[in-house]
Amino acid sequence: MKQVIFAISLLALVNCKDTKQQEAKIETVEQPVELINEGHNEYTSNVYANVWIKDIELDNSRKWPANTETKEGVQNMQNIIKTQTAKTLDDYYKLAERLNNDKNYVIKNCTMKGASHDNLHIWLLPLMDKIEALSQAKTLKEALKLKYSIEGNLNAYNDYFE
Q1: Does the domain formed by 48-160 have CATH 1.10.8?
Q2: Which top-rank group of organisms is this from (predicted)?
């Protein structure tokens, strides 16, 4: 995430120089960024924002069905975020690692298809960004804010999926 922002900032600074060099740099920098962050664009600017809420939908006023493994992984994350106390940055990094493991379990074992799968991704992508940001938090205040934001995402799962 920080590498993307750094790369974009670097490109803006280089803009004042030779445009041929800039075009070459854009080609080498932008392509990997798009592959890594495909679908994340509107979420990466502010990890605390919950813009995904305006995009997610219910299934004709009903919750989407989720596969068993997705339910298990999300329930594990919900339990972790509620029960793990963190007092140091290292504690928050360990929390992020545990959440990341369960998030990876959800991704690896997801068998959902169609609109339910699409809406799961609307919910999941910002959660992924927040977990990554927690693993790189620089202050306890930032880590705590991210923890609460992650908890909000995890709790909202129950509003859209069953």
Answers
A1: no
A2: Bacteria
CA torsion, points 146, 148, 153, 154, in degrees to nearest 10? 120
In this prediction the pTM is 0.71
User: Which 3-state string (H, E, C) describes 67-125?
Assistant: CHHHHHHHHHHHHHHHHCCCCCHHHHHHHHHHHHHHHHHHHHHCCCCHHHHHHHHHHHH
Q: CA 90 to CA 15: how far, in whole Å? A: 39
Angstrom distance (rounded) from CA 50 to CA 153: 8
2: phi > 0 → left, psi -120 to 50 → alpha, else beta; which? alpha
Per-residue model confidence as pLDDT tens digits over 45-96: 478 788 898 999 999 999 999 999 999 999 999 999 999 999 999 999 999 9
* Pairwise CA distance, residues 64 & 6, whole Å: 38
